[in-house]
Amino acid sequence: xxxxxxxxxxxxxxxxxxxxxxxxxxxxxxxxxxxxxxxxxxxxxxxxxxxxxxxxxxxxxxxxxxxxxxxxxxxxxxxxxxxxxxxxxxxxxxxxxxxxxxxxxxxxxxxxxxxxxxxxxxxxxxxxxxxxxxxxxxxxxxxxxxxxxxxxxxxxxxxxxxxxxxxxxxxxxxxxxxxxxxxxxxxxxxxxxxxxxxxxxxxxxxxxxxxxxxxxxxxxxxxxxxxxxxxxxxxxxxxxxxxxxxxxxxxxxxxxxxxxxxxxxxxxxxxxxxxxxxxxxxxxx
Length: 285
Prior knowledge:
The chain is α/β, with parallel strands linked by helices and about 280 residues long.
């Protein structure tokens, strides 16, 4: 009997220690129980965890040397510098972005995260740094130039993206073939498992320029949306820092520099900076 009592006490003690450790790793944010680290905790740890894509060239990808590169990465590196921390990159899939924030797996999500009403209910978005709409890319010998051309055809999309949502809600007549990762969507298009692929117009334009035999027949579809960093719901101190940093960077024309460094070598003169970048979080500029 005494052994059982000692065992129970030991288990309770370990459980209490576990809860204490969890509380040190992050705070309980909103009433929904999200876990996050405050600005001070991140600075104290000397490392910020940022969620990015590893297969979405030229915005977030891993190069031949195993290093993260792209428009989002250029921004992430500067943000970490201003925080006074190193970066721990966490590769994510489109459908996991909100969940990674809610569970504290990342402090900041910068994986080309488009602001939507539904997403804003579960995460907190900072000021935007990019604007986009949807595009559709297809083979040169069967270019999709209008949504009507997709009737009876198969459209490839990545799960949890704005393209997935847009076509599901607005065009149920279009058959969707969904994949978790962007690389799989492009491979499916190359392998002719679908007739076209849709995602952000900025990305399909870049991809078509680098892959012969494909054309972006629909360059602007749906509303013009914005992309912004996101933090866990209720993480006010970190959100305030990011917003202030974006405003400061706007005064330096930082995002124009980012464009020239990471996107211009891909787009050339086919895309203008003002068609993509948002300086200082101000869409009117």
